[in-house]
Amino acid sequence: MRSLTEAEARVMRTLLSDLPGPERHRVQESGVPRTTYQTIRHRAFINGWLKERYLPDPALLGVDRIRFIVAQPYAERWNNSIRALRSQEGLVVLWASPETLFGVVFEQSSQRSPDVLRSPESLRRYWTVVSSTRGDGPLAYFDYEGIWSRWTMDSDPIVYPRPLPRAKSPVLATSREDWVAVRDLLARPFGSGSSQPGTVTFRSTHLSRRERRLLADGRISYRVLPNLSEIPPVRGYRPEHLAFIVGDLQPGQNPRELFGNLVQRAHVAPILYAYDDHRVLLMALSPAPARIAKGRTSVVAVLQKHLQKIEVVREMIDSLYPLVDHRYDRLVRVSPAPSIPPPVETGHK
């Protein structure tokens, strides 16, 4: 497998950051000529290195908490565990390896959401973090730009960390026409009208005025995600594992402080960082490039200062298969005669 060129690595970093504003800002940030930027961007999507998604403000859909699940079922319970997770109405992410399941479920606290997997007869190991979206929410939500900047470009991140989107105005009435646009945006990569593989049509120039307004208001955000198993090495480095790290907070410790120490002192940029009142879950790539080991605090030392009962689950990137791959369209019913929710007001308490 060939390595990415320096120009490709720079453009990939810019795409993962999705800088706001006109395209010329992203071209300038990449440091390559405009035609080179456009050629590499096209290549990245055609080759399957990157994919595009639209993420909703959870409050827009009445979601006030997100459940993150890491589970290792017994072999004879494997299929039952997958079926149980897939039955969850708010499931938007489900990854599976021969040993581990990882799921993300959007929930409403007003509705009973049973922990469908928590059965000692089914699971060898199991952890869950339920993060409220009314406060901080996840501090980093599938944001790969930080680790790409640190580990491939040896530079500080451009926009990392990015959480889930949040509407700019505390109260935004959503009309029926807006709901249609929300449905269409979230389903855009998967609906019958979407483009064929290898064709990129998600740029703002292809969106309606109403869809662009949803993006500008912050009710929906655009996110570029990598296909880690498809991206060539950069400077001879290619991460091999995805690590899920779970730990209980030490008495008096603050999860935000832990996140800051990981980023600033340990030079780690977790792809995902979520917490609740008792526990922290973070997701990171490993191993780190040897060249960045100097001058940084040990990740283990930072974690042990803030957490207890630390557990680490490492999975080969090539062994993880996305059974449900950021399917936020599952949160809004999509059909030829869609059931569209009534107008709501989105606000964050």
Give a verbal description of the structure:
This protein has 349 residues and is α+β, with helices and mostly antiparallel strands. It is 26% helix and 25% strand. It has 9 helices and 13 strands. It has helices at 6-17, 23-30, 34-46, 78-86, 145-152, 176-187, 209-217, 255-264, 299-306, and strands at 50-56, 65-73, 91-96, 101-107, 123-132, 172-173, 220-226, 241-249, 272-275, 279-286, 307-316, 321-325, 345-346. Strands 5-2-4-3-12 form a 5-stranded antiparallel β-sheet, covered by helices on one side. Strands 9-10-8-11 form a 4-stranded antiparallel β-sheet. The protein has a two-stranded antiparallel ribbon with strand order 1-7. Strand 3 and strand 4 (101-107) form a beta hairpin. The chain is globular. The N and C termini lie far apart (50 Å). The model is unreliable at 192-198, 334-340 and 342-349 (pLDDT under 50).
- Total number of helices: 9
Helical fraction: 25-40%
Percent range for β-strand residues: 15-25%
Distance between the termini: 50 Å
| Arithmetic mean of pLDDT | 86
Shape by Cα distribution: globular
Oligomer: single chain
The largest pleated sheet is described as: 5 strands, antiparallel
Number of E-state strands: 13
| Rg calc | 20 Å
Note the run of SSEs as H and E. HHHEEHEEEHEHHEEHEEHEEE
Question: Which structural class is indicated by helix and strand composition?
Answer: alpha+beta
Question: Which stretches are poorly predicted, pLDDT < 50 over at least 5 residues?
Answer: 192-198, 334-340, 342-349
Strand order, biggest sheet? 5-2-4-3-12
